[in-house]
Structure formats: structure tokens, C-alpha cells
Amino acid sequence: MGNIYAVTNQKGGVGKTTSTVNLAAALADYRKKVLLIDLDPQGNATTGCGIDKENLSNSSYEVVMTESKAVDAIVRPDELSFDVMPANTDLTAAEVQLLDVKLREHRLRLALESTREKYDFILIDCPPSLSMLTVNALVASRGVLIPIQCEYYALEGLSSLLKTIERIKQRANPNLEVTGLIRTMFDARNNLANQVSRQLINHFQGKVFHSIIPRNVRLAEAPSHGLPVLNYDRASRGAIAYMALASELMRRDKKATEAAGG
Ligand code: ADP
Ligand code: MG
What are the transmembrane regions (predicted)? Predict the structure, then answer.
């Protein structure tokens, strides 16, 4: 049975969705069975996978809020080699409705129980907040992937994310771990980016992934074609970087699974 990873950072625009979609595609390219779960009401990962978010019969909203089965919300987009549980603005209502349901922090974990075993990797694209949806993703996950844009305010907010992770680890999910920090949209010619990158490494040491995601226009263009960058321009620097990151993630995943005795 595969591990579940939450891709999260409550800051918007740091590369969560780009990382989720392109890691999913890269892992699938390595022949892994992958499910991407869109848990952001903006539905950017859904659109980025070529799915029309206005015409969903089932979505992550139904899975989290109703008795609807996860498998009924999962689709395989034509041109892709991984599965997607899409989302749209319906999910906005879940933020509030979740406050009133039983086991409100465990809804996603429970909904995935029977589906998990079909996959090697499940990646959850989180909304830009530490809301009940993000809490659901963290309770369901084994690892957390944190995309970080190396700029002045990058470290701000990171401590509240780490506190949330620690709290969930103590209360609801003892196995939860930060698997790695991903440096995104990196510009090696920028002094500040290099400085922040060094700070991250000093502070988080081995947690920072060695693979760096460069700023690459192909990565920004691909979603408008409804495709991961691997399908859009396989030779681009962005595609190569996400392949390298996926291979690093597979190594960390294997280590974590071995350490857990699985
Ligand atoms: P988030 O999900 O954290 O809000 P996104 O993944 O949507 O962030 O990225 C924010 C914007 O930056 C998007 O327009 C996306 O296409 C662009 N972007 C993300 N990563 C890169 C990159 N490495 N190079 C260039 N543009 C990027
Ligand atoms: Mg996003």
C-alpha cells in the first residue's frame, strides 16, 4: 500500500499545484500508480490536468462531505497516466460544513481507506490556508511536502505550518512527518534566493530536497493546455527538474516505509 503526501504551504502562489501535478506525472512516468487529489476549491490542479471543473458529477467535495465513495469521484484524464480526484468551488462549502460533522478531521482519511491500496503514491494538493481541508489532508497523510519560494517572506508562516503539523502528529496522526521542503521557482542568479536557500538548508538540514525547481516558462504554460509539463515539453528544464525531484521522493518514500517496518 502506498503512502499519502500532502503538498501544503498556507502561502498562495508558492508552487503547490505545479508541484503536485508535475510530481504526479513524473511518478507515473516512473511506472508508479498515482492518484492526485485536488483539495483546493480553486480547482487549479483539476484544470491543470485537463478536466473541466464546471461539469463534475462527483468531486472531492462529495467524498469529504457525503457518503459518496472515493472511487466514484476518481477519473483518468485521456492524455495522462495517473488518476485524479477533481475539485471545484463546491468545496468552499466544505470548509464551513466540516465544522459540524462527526470525525471532522478524519473525513478524508476514512474515505480513502478502501482506495489507498490501489496506488503507490497519493498526492494531495492543499488550499492556501491551514483550514479544516488542510487538516483533513494532514490527518490522512504519511508525509508533508512543502513548496517554498526562496524570497524574503518565505520563512514567515512556516513556523505556524510546522506547529500545525506537530499538533496533528500529537493528536491525530502519530506517523505524520515532514518529508521535504521543495525550493520552487528558483533563480540561481538572484542573490536573495541563494541566501534564503542557504538559510533553509541551515535550519532544516536534510529535509530540504536536493533537486531544485527552476523558474521555467514551460511550467507556467503547461496548465493552460491542461497538461503536466512532461506531456507538454518533456525536454524543458522544468520537466527534468520534476523528474529528478520525483526520483528523490521515491528514495525518501522507500526509506520511510522501511523504517516503519513496511
Ligand atoms: P500555489 O498552488 O502554491 O498557489 P501554483 O503552483 O499555482 O502555486 O503557482 C503559482 C503560479 O506560478 C502559477 O501561475 C504557476 O504556473 C507559476 N509557477 C509555479 N512554479 C513555477 C516555476 N517553477 N516556473 C515558472 N512559473 C511557475
Ligand atoms: Mg494551488
Answer: none
Residue 85 belongs to what domain range? 3-259
**Closest C-alpha residue for ligand 1 atom 13:** 220
CATH number at residue 194: 3.40.50.300
Ligand number nearest CA of 45 is 2
Q: Distance between CA 92 and CA 85 in Å, rounded?
A: 16
pTM of the model: 0.98
For residue 169, the model assigns a pLDDT of 97
Quick one: 122 exposed, middle or buried, by C-beta within 10 A (0-12, 13-18, 19+)? buried
Q: Using the predicted structure, report yes or no on whether residue 262 has a pLDDT greater than 80.
A: no
Gap between the Cα atoms of 253 and 37, Å rounded:
18
Q: How far apart are CA 233 and CA 46, in angstroms?
A: 19
Q: Edge to edge, what strands does the sheet with 34-38 contain? A: 83-85, 34-38, 121-125, 3-7, 143-149, 177-184
Mutational test site, ligand 1, from 8, 10, 18, max ligand atoms within 8 Å of CB: 18
Report the candidate in 6, 3, 249 with the shortest Cα–Cα distance to residue 126. Answer: 6
